[in-house]
User: Fold this.
Amino acid sequence: MEINNFTPFSALAGGLLIGLSAVFLLLSSGRIAGISGLVQGALINESTQRRGQCILFLAGLIGGALLYRMSPGAITSITLEAPMILLVTGGILTGFGTSLGSGCTSGHGICGLARKSTRSLVATIVFMTSGIATVYCLRHVFGG
Assistant:
């Protein structure tokens, strides 16, 4: 098995930044940094102040990725090999799943586990098990 693009230091830095941003959001506004909740807050039925906080946090996620892409030594040769319809369908199903699961991987896996939430522990186990099973099936059962 070949490991491609193994970057432990940038992964560690990214994880630290995600954790710090989640702590900052919690301390500054009392809100949990679940991305699906932030997207929903930016789009649906929120106060102007809450909507602004959500938009700024999401803009920081996008801006951080853009800054990384422009930094020297960044891995910029990322390609998507799946058809666009598959990507769109996956995004829609992910949105449906986060609604059904009352949160996303960031809300449950980062913030929920840090708060010792049993519901978040179960949700994270389900997320990880589903992801592992999907990759295994796609690579080893279906030969993709």
Notes: The mean pLDDT is 82. The first helix runs from residue 8 to 29. The radius of gyration is 17 Å. Residues 16 and 127 are 21 Å apart (CA to CA).
